[in-house]
Amino acid sequence: MILMGFPLLLSLVLMGIALIVLLTSLLKHNTFLSMFVVSLLLGVVVLPAQDVVPVITQGFGDTMKSIGVIIVLGIMIGVLLDKTGATISMANAILRLTGNEKAGLAIGMTGFVTGIPIFCNSGFVVLSGLNRTLVRRTGKPMIYMATMLAAGLYEIHCLIPPHPGAMMAAGLIKPNIAHLIVLGIAIAIPGALAGFAWARFACRNEPRCPVDLQSNDDLDDRDLPSTFHSFLPVLVPLLLLSTKSVFSLKHAESGNCIENAINLMGCPEVALLIGVGFAITLFKKINTTLSCELFDDAIEKAGPILVLTGAGGIFGAVIKATGVGEHAGVYLAGTGLGLFIPFVISAFMKTAQGSSTVAIMTAAAIVSPMLPSLHLENELGKLLATLAMGAGSMVVSHANDSYYWVVTKFSGLDSGATLRVYTTTTLVMGISTFLVILLCSLFML
Questions:
Q1: 142-159 and 356-367 are packed helices; what angle lies between their axes, rounded to 10 degrees?
Q2: Is 237 helix (H, G, I), strand (E, B) or coil?
Q3: pLDDT for 251-295, tens place per residue?
């Protein structure tokens, strides 16, 4: 990294973020090129010349490695569910329970429960087809419904094990894992509700979508798959992912055949492939030609999403390579603000480089030796410090976060709408969750 002071480094990073927002949201330039060019310019200014291209390619490659296959398989499931009318069966079942007016809360709580065992990216990919059908059936604005689903998944993803950020932070801070999960879920509920309330407020003037009760080639109820069969391509991957998550909480693996098989089938890529298999069974009659056409259609739809998600990975990697997060951590370490320190460090890292997992990991590495000076060295202090870092890792999801682009492109939204509603919702969620943690600390510390 080229030597420069922290204020200048921070200013350059913030200018890069602002420039991307300007180019993509206001000037409507191509999103991939805008993010790539800004990432390249920032890298040239801040990094040694020989490191710029390797950092860019690594950022793209690491993002594709982590969620590329998941996106492709998830879109395949979505296409198959849509073509068979399964999403209509699923939407009808949900609306029978909640009614049209509570459809947003229903999809938000579905995301919250689904997010306990699986990553938010995977969960949104799997449930996005259902969400689109609910929009068509209820007329609710897509930005509202997408934000509700995204918020439910995101709140739980950032806060508790077995999600990787919380798990790695727990390894450094060493709170009681069981207590972390139980208290984390309890704290996540008001945080998610605050996000839901904000999304509803932010979308109060959004125009309603046209209600399309005869979508999907005018399928009627007699042509639809059963509700149970329709949910199988979604529920089976979720069950496999959940089962693997339970096993991942064990410190030692037994290595027996059953556990090895569950660990394999519980990998997101394998679980979603199994989901594709169940989705194929929804067709009453299917041939090779039709299946190839559907899979080709899914791959074509995946292309733009993969490219934009990779662009977010590039921008995040460049910002991470600048070291701005570590500089901020060193600066904040001497302020003595108790639980504010893990929250602010994690929030800064999240906003700067995009990954909630990296934000929590980095904050935990910085905070763990500081716990005695922050008076957080006892068991309850460690527990609340870990949760504070999880709350910070929600603030904020924007253009350098791959999940932001998954939410945007899988929902057919423009970046400006996502920034205005979803990004501000993540800010509200992070702050609200931290305020709940502070309230708990008054009685626990």
A1: 30
A2: helix
A3: 555 567 877 888 889 888 898 899 999 989 988 887 788 888 888
DSSP state of 368: G
Return the structure tokens found at 12: 């350059």
Separation of CA 445 from chain center: 31
Q: For 145-192, how does the pLDDT look when each residue is reduced to its tens digit (9 = 90+)? A: 999 999 999 998 899 876 777 877 887 788 887 788 888 889 999 999
Q: What is the pTM of this model?
A: 0.71
What's the pLDDT at 343?
Answer: 94
Distance CA 244, CA 256 (A): 14
Radius of gyration from C-alpha coordinates of the chain: 22
Only one residue has tokens 């739980």, namely 156
Nearest residue to 390 (alpha-carbon basis) of 241, 190, 238, 180: 180
Classify residue 47 by its DSSP letter. Answer: S
Q: In the numeric block, which tokens belong to residue 414?
A: 């423009």
Measured between alpha carbons, how far is 440 from 444 in angstroms, rounded to an integer?
6
428, 381, 331: which is closest to 183 by C-alpha?
381
Which DSSP letter does residue 100 get? Answer: G
Note the pLDDT of residue 300.
85
Tokens of residue 157, six digits:
């993803």
Structure tokens that stand for 68 in this block = 């590329």
- Give which of 144, 228, 125 is closest to 417, Cα–Cα: 144
C-beta of residue 78 within 8 angstroms of C-beta of residue 276: no
* Distance of alpha carbon 354 from alpha carbon 25, whole angstroms: 18
State the chain's maximal CA–CA distance in angstroms: 69
